[in-house]
């Protein structure tokens, strides 16, 4: 996307792309965790890291309602903070080196700063064109059934 282009999808958002990247990093690093952590630390860290991007995607669908948009972005921020906790726990348990954790935590903090900026500017993401939807041919019948 160019400097002045608008996002057409949540996939165009840099914060979403960064969230996916850090989620993948958490996945790869957690492969080295011991088997006994499979249903606790491994699962929790992977789940929370993946949820960041999922929450951003959900927020995108609610952007026409700035309060709902901000709420979902706040959920995403909560998930990135939770992921930081699990990464620090992995260091405490000596499953990760501090240098590895520092990289992931730095990426998560960057995502958190971006989310904070989006939350404070939620109205800017509202966009235009949220009036009545027009479809040339609806597979479920006439739009008049729904809009009278």
Give the tags.
single chain, 148 residues, mainly alpha, de novo design (two linked rop proteins), 5 helices, 64% helix, elongated, disordered C terminus
Report the strand count: 0
Class based on secondary structure composition and strand pairing:
mainly alpha
CATH topology descriptor of one domain: de novo design (two linked rop proteins)
Reading off the top of the CATH hierarchy, the class of one domain is best stated as Mainly Alpha
Largest sheet: none
Strand content: under 5%
Query: Mind telling me which CATH architecture of one domain this is?
Result: Up-down Bundle
Gross geometry: elongated
Number of helical elements: 5
**The CATH H-level homologous superfamily of one domain:** 23S rRNA-intervening sequence
Instruction: Write the element-wise H/E pattern from the N-terminal end onward.
Output: HHHHH
Q: Helical percent range?
A: 55-70%
End-to-end span in angstroms? 39 Å
Low-pLDDT segments, ≥5 res:
129-148
What is the CA-atom radius of gyration, in angstroms? 19 Å
Description:
It contains five helices and no strands. The radius of gyration is 19 Å and the shape is elongated. It has 148 residues and is mainly alpha-helical. Residues 129-148 have low confidence and may be disordered.
